[in-house]
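Worked example

This section walks through a single chain of length 155. The input is the sequence exactly as stored; nothing has been trimmed or padded.
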Amino acid sequence: MTPPEAIAIAAYIRKHRSAAEQERILALAEANARTIAARVPGTGNPLPHPCALQGSDHVCCVYSERPLRCRPLHAVAIARDLANSAVGPSPSPVGPGHENAVAEGIEIGMVRAMKASGVDGRTYELNAALATAMKMPDAAERWAKGESLFDNPLR
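Given that input, the structure is written out below as tokens.
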């Protein structure tokens, strides 16, 4: 996740979610971040953890502001599911991995643009970045001035 994604999602949560929901999201993001940080590399597939942004109805509670990596996957998956339910299974117009390639390409372009602009353009683990941004209401202003707000960049 890039800094502007974390900052935009945190701002959306502050504006559109109740205080109780904000607390739930923050607590789960912090718990997920601790679990992910404690993983030992090379020890097999980690157990999945619940998405902090998924509401009690199992739907993304920040859909219009969802992370970049979620956007192509969800859009294609929904279109594919709708097409399959309407006329039965049909060949997908895109191959396996297409969604990830699209998201990665967009992310690479954003990272390059941010670095060229002199702001933090590194990527971060979603939960840790989200928790940090949620606890920092002035994150957008600080990041835009060139401050690095997040710890442990992925790249």
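What to look for: The radius of gyration is 17 Å.
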